[in-house]
Amino acid sequence: MRTIFAASLAAATLAGRVLAHSPVPVDADDVPVKRRKTLGFGPVHPHATFKQVRQESLAGFAPAPASVEVRDPVEVATEFVRAHLGEETGFVVRKDSYTDRATGVTHVYVRQVVNGIEVADGDINVNVKDGKVFSYGDSFYRGPAPSMYSTAVAPQPHADYCTQLEYQMDVEQTNFEQWLASAEQGEQVQLVRRQFRESVHEPLKRLHSMNCAFVDLPADMAHKSTAAALEDPRHALLQFMVAATPSEEVVQDILAKYDQHLAGMRSTFEAHLVGDLQTMVEVIDNVPDAVNPVKAKLAYIQVPEGGKTVLDLVWKFEVEMKDNWYEAAVSAKAPHRIVSVVDWASDSPFSPVPKEPVERKMATYNVFAWGINDPSVGNRSIEKETYDAIASPLGWHSLPYANDPAESDYMRATKGIKNSTTTWGNNVFAHEDWEGRNAWMYNYRPDAGESMNFNFTYEPKLTNSTDALEEAQKYINATVTQLFYTSNMVHDLYYRYGFDEVSGNFQQHNFGRGGEEGDAVIANAQDGSGYNNANFMTPPDGQNGRCRMYLWNTAMPYRDGDLEAGIVIHELSHGLSTRLTGGPANSGCLGWGESGGMGEGWGDFLATTIRSNKNYSDYAMGAWAANRPQGIRNYVYSLNETVNPSTYKTLDKPGYWGVHAIGEVWAEILWVVSQRLIAKHGYTETLFPPAPLENGTIPEGDFYRPQEYTATGEKKPLVPKHGNSLIVQLVLNGMKLQQCRPSFFDARDAIIQADQVLTGGENYCELWKGFSARGLGPDARVEGRTPWGGGIRTDDYALPKTCLEDVA
């Protein structure tokens, strides 16, 4: 019981620490912190699946002979979906479908349509290569179509979510009391009692209090709404804002002046296209506690009812708030229950290089260089603006006037390339945000002038708590410079592994390569809305991502999260995994449970892989900022099962209900898998591929294997030569293949399939050995899985039969 309690205590403590907001005593080992309010839940989709398509089952979808022109992949996918679903099921092909330039795989995203209305969670993603479908994910509704505007019996996932929190509090309390009864009494027990209260019980209690105070509000206010609610989303929206706002003052104001707020909300209408389906979107202004107008449209969502799945008509909202950016579905008819909610804020041949040269002096930066995770492992040095010419053709400080949001219409229309002398560029807008505001465009940024030499002092001195904040703010120039440098390095690295314009990356200007532009990362340094935190908001492609980094008051002087590369990389990786999973126009695929947990886990894994070196070490996450050697997770990432015992079944333990705890299990599994590939293929000291030649082609160097060709003489995708670069490629390619709302099994299978596409499956057994070593073998299973990650799991350490002869 001692072990269970310790794990439980750590999980809740770390989840609280990651979502911190309030100043805390710096001498506390486990600091009591306040969580950023966030909602995330929705119905389970037991019918959702991710499948590989065998050659013999493809019928008319087999590859065309070499002498026949390969058919359009979107046409192939469309015919496959029709054959798979039957002619009666309506759907549209989304415009964010794209062909991966590196692998040649076309990812086609299909949205279900019933009665001319989108099924918001009815998704099929079809993966096509060489004229054939080789895998697909499917969460389409299969039941009868309801009458035009009928609704299901109002589901209660919000109430179920709150019941789960109450259950979790009871479980944690019982475990603690059992441990306490068997423990030796004394001063140490009193300390642990305080730690439990502050780090486990109180955070859960606060979370329940924040998110569940108005679970009965829809029933209480049902009389306010009428049948006209199907034409007027304001009632549903206003009741959602009561549940969503963290401000008690706003809650009381809405409840006291409900009709006034209702009358004060003004609407305009826009026509949006989803494939060939035109949808009217209502844009609602003057919504209490929203920082921008709210988008609303009618949609269906799939909900459980009496052992089956039915469609419920909902208002689908996009609500941007100060600390949250919600995609919510609320029942269209009263009672207006919250059915699902995703918080977008989460605690190879390439095109030739554009001919326009960068006509300015290249920048230099005094920073912790790429690979130095934090101040505890290295010193600052002068680094050049080593931008990647493929990923950032104009460098890090230049962008067209036409794409600059801070310029006037006249400048956008008449000027060419803007060369900035501040931390403002095509990929990232980095600046201070001491006031914790949503306004950002004119915030302070360091200016290096014509020299482009961003060389600023960073020598924080020991102060008392009264002066600590002021002391940290003295070094804002160094801090913003570091955030800008790290963020651009991440942009360029992920680009070279396939996170490019068509797949939804973050750039103001896309150089005519496709995708939606106007979405560089807004990066806030020393964000004043809290402490001991970091988060990233990922709206769909074409809207700016927002990264907020915080000071950590866990030591004197304060530690600055902007200077710990692993934290920055983790947050930016939320943008990567959200845009790649389910397509760049769908940000609702990693909202909760195993899916949301993997969103956290990929960030930890990639950050750890980037900081690792040839001589193997275990690594902690966030250790420097949190001032804790073991970091901000239950365990450090390690191959040693005594150091990190995590397996798939670990998700059943108390304390593993949150996405951060779920995510560290996924990250640990990937860490074990990566070491298998490194053992086989070796290690490269740099994860950056070679720079392009003048003609835009990529040299193999010591990074890629020799280029291979198909039987028809076409180039195959470039394959990273070493284990650590190969796993990064497979993880990103797997994100593109997997379905929306994936499980651990789906993501595992997608990575294995990514290797099949890239190498012909030569690492099939190495990958299975890595997954099976931590219980995620072919016969691993889960029964009774809930949206919050619950259920009963069974580990499987076996291997597929084809790998048994090669067990190492």
UniProtKB/TrEMBL annotation:
Any GO CC annotation of this UniProt entry: extracellular space
Cofactor: Zn(2+)
Pfam families: FTP (PF07504), Peptidase_M36 (PF02128)
Gene3D superfamilies associated with the record: 3.10.170.10, Neutral Protease Domain 2 (1.10.390.10)
UniProt GO molecular function: metalloendopeptidase activity; zinc ion binding
InterPro entries: FTP_domain, Fungal_virulence_M36, Peptidase_M36, Peptidase_M4/M1_CTD_sf
Domain FTP: 91-140
Binding site for Zn(2+): 347, 570, 574, 600
Entry keywords, A to Z: Hydrolase, Metal-binding, Metalloprotease, Protease, Secreted, Signal, Zinc, Zymogen
Domain of life: Eukaryota
Active site (UniProt): 571
Signal peptide: 1-20
Record localization: Secreted
GO biological process, one term: proteolysis
Cofactor: record remark: Binds 1 zinc ion per subunit.
EC number: 3.4.24.-
Similarity section: Belongs to the peptidase M36 family.
Record PANTHER family: EXTRACELLULAR METALLOPROTEINASE MEP (PTHR33478:SF1)
Full protein name: Extracellular metalloproteinase
